[in-house]
Every structure is written in structure tokens, then in C-alpha cells.
């Protein structure tokens, strides 16, 4: 058994069987003693102990674990082994991302749909091998892709880039990769487009062309302005038929804020019929299972793919072009504004956090341009019989008691 000699300040030494004196240093970390071989002189041992104490203090300040020198190689090998185990392909990461971050969220179907395009191009690439250049190439190529014979929109390509960026951000957060290669890739700005909304005749034709399970969804979108994800995730627990309102919790809305939407009489009648089905979700569709004489029909959740295909078939049957399901939300807002409802009310119903989003409908208001031109009355007076004069002057020149407002020429 070796005999240890103390040299003070945590420096020890012992003599080997060959008669050579070897120095060690002793430090304490987390109530445990650590002895580290220092060399052949007391001076070397003293210097090493000072460095170790400094390392321990830096680790404490940074909130990190201190690894003794003798264990660093072992820890590095373990970290490399763990890194290789977590160095998976993007296709392997997608289900992990959906399971651990999206489960129960209204946007789950949206992300699953977008992930298909990402997997087609980048699914075989390992997360650690992804570079900003590869993400940029994916984005540029996505801009050239075609869907149903037409080049996809810039907005669609931007949505796919956004989903990829969010997925990789979670990969960074969960320790799969050190940084997000998609963070440096900036989407192109989408030019502002004209709001597309249905006329009353188009809305009637569309609902008539819908499959029975789709019609209530379309009616709900037209009468509430809810987003597609909000509608597909809607549950009866969110619907109060007695008080005639739908209450969306912040976790299920895009703005992360609670939102209450009144239920119109038309929609109330539709929802009462659906409630008789005694289901958890509000909007479901029938699905036939089995073969031959063993076929059965059950109600299942509506996915984004199924909704898109059925909706496009209804549009074609109704003869409506250049219209998306999201445009039903625009239709809801446009009808309200054209009916004279204030933009503030529309903003609250739509759940816009910023009124700038609602401002796109301002031009539809019957008072929008009229109120702008009315400013001229304050500046120049009132237009009377084609001449501009102040109200008092016009009354004096008329020679009677008729006020200027009585003879305003409407323009």
C-alpha cells in the first residue's frame, strides 16, 4: 500500500516501486475528492492545482459540470457515441418532431403535409450534414416545383421553408445539432395580392356542390372566419350552443390568444344537427372500411389532404376559380365590412393581433372613401351649386333662410 506524503495546499506525493517520487494534487468537487497526477515536481503540482480550481470555478459560474482530467477522454468518447446515436436523417427526425412538439396542436396536419415535400428532397440527409447552402437549394428548387400542372406559388415555397426552419430549431433545442442551417436562408417577400372573396351566388353554388360532410365545414368557415386548422381541431368542449358562441383557447389559435366567436342562427342550425352524432370532434367525415359484405362506415377526423381534394372538387363543380379554403375567411371578413361593420370588430372576430392584417379589407367599407373625401369639406367649405364657399357666405348670397347643407350637390 503506497505511503502518501502531504506538501500542503492539496499537494501530495508518493514514491513508486522504482523509487521515483510522483506528485499529485487533490481537489474537491460536489463533496467528492479527486486526485490528479501532476508530474515529478512540487512546483508542477502547485501550478496544476491552481488551474483545476480555476476550471471548477468557471464551470460553477457557467452552470456546467466540471470533468476531471482523467475522465475527459472517457466523457469525450461517451459524447461522441451519443452524438452518433442522435445523428439521424431528416426523415427519421420528422416523426420525432411531430410526436414531441405537435401532438394535440391544430397545426399538426399542416406540418405533416408540408413535411412530405421536405422529406422528398432532404429526407436522406443527416441532420449534422445539412448546410445553409443545401437549404437554399431546396428552397430555390421548391420554387420551380409544379402542382396539378402549375408552378407552385411563392407563398407555398415560403411555408415549406418556414416549416423546415422550425423543425431544425427544435433539433437544435433538443441537442441533435449545434446550430440551425435554415436560419440563414431568407424567404422572398410575397407581393400583396388582391383579396379574393365569394359573392352570395358563388357561396350558394359552392355549398350546394359540397359533399355532405364538407358542407358544414364550409358553412362554419363562412359564418365564423375561423382558420382551417382551428376548424379541423374544433371540439364540442369549445362550443356553447346555449350561449351561441365558440371559445377558442390560446393554445389552439395562431395568435396564442383566447378568442370568442358568436354563432349565427344559420350556423346554429347546422351545429345542432352535428351535435346529434355524439362525437368528440365537431367536424368529421365518413370512412368505409372492410371488403365485400364486411364493409362498415365510421366517422374519422378530416385531414388536410382529404379536405383539399374534396374542396377543389366542389369548386370545380360550382365553376369557381382562383379560390382557396383560406379565402372563405376572407369572404367572412369582406361581407362584414361591406355590411358596414367596424374594422375593430372584424379584427377581434378574426383574431388578428395587429390591425394591419385587418386593414386589407378597409377598401370594402361603404364609408371608407366617403370619409376620406369628407376631409375636403373641412378644408374648403361645402360645395354649393358647383361653387366652393363657406356655409355662412353661401347662405348670405342666397338671400333666404335655406342653409347650405340643404342644397349640397352630392358627388
Mind telling me the CATH class of the largest domain? Answer: Mainly Alpha
| Number of DSSP-assigned strands | 13
Largest sheet report: 4 strands, antiparallel
Uncertain spans: 382-411
From the 3D structure, determine the CATH topology of the largest domain. hpI Integrase, Chain A
Helix content: 40-55%
One letter per element, helices H and strands E, the order comes to EEEEHHHHHEEHHHHEEEHEEHHHHHHEEH
End-to-end CA span: 111 Å
Could you tell me the strand content as a percent range? 5-15%
Spatial ordering of strands, largest sheet: 1-2-3-4
- Report the CATH superfamily of the largest domain: Intergrase catalytic core
State mean pLDDT (0 to 100 scale).
81
Structural class: alpha+beta
Count of discrete alpha- or pi-helical segments spanning 4 or more residues: 17
